[in-house]
Amino acid sequence: MREDELLSLLPADVDLERATAWVRAEHAKSGYARSVPLNRDAMDVLERRLKTAVTYVFERPPSKTALPIKIGQIDDRDLRRACDAIGIKDFRFHDFRHTWASWHVQAGTPLMVLKELGGWETVEMVQKYAHLAQSHLAQYVSNVTFTARLEPEEETPPCGVALTA
Q1: Would you say 6 and 59 are in contact if contact means Cβ atoms under 8 Å apart?
Q2: Which helix (H) or strand (E) element contains residue 143?
Q3: CATH number of the domain within which 11 lies
Q4: Same-domain pairing of 54 and 104
């Protein structure tokens, strides 16, 4: 989910039984509501957050004198300090989304599936991750070969032209 989608998540938008969260249209970049299937990691986080959530899933806990406060955006200073502590440079919250998409492509998730999972409107937006996994090409590389068709004693293919790589 994008930062605003995540931080605007209401407890009512999470269905743990169906392992799904809902992005409301007013918080979606596309302007269209969508469902987000949740993996076990996300479920674990949401289960913990929902135990104390009052208004939003991700909110600062209430103080003795104030109500819970919606986390309006990720505090870049906190993220920067965390990255500095482990030696990561030039990292933004949105980079988590790119990392997630890259890992999906490397794990073999089809681009059309990733498009739906990430809420992108066009496959062109997802294709920037396609170069990360050429494994989808491996199954096709041997569809056409020349040398595999030669008999062991033949040195040139039947057309009389020697093939070299």
Answers
A1: no
A2: none
A3: 1.10.443.10
A4: no
DSSP-assigned states of every residue in 62-124:
P-SSS--EE--S--HHHHHHHHHHHT--S--THHHHHHHHHHHHHTT--HHHHHHHHT-S-HH
Q: How far apart are CA 69 and CA 161, in angstroms?
A: 75
Mean pLDDT of 148-156: 61
Residue reference for tokens 């040398």: 147
d(CA 120, CA 89): 27
Q: What is the pTM of this model?
A: 0.67
CA distance 118 to 24: 14
Tokens linked to 15: 């269905």
Residues labelled catalytic: 2, 29, 94, 97, 120, 129
Predicted local distance difference test score (pLDDT) of residue 51: 93
**Domain around 116:** 93-137
Mean pLDDT on 153-162: 59
Report the distance separating Cα 32 and Cα 132, nearest Å. 29
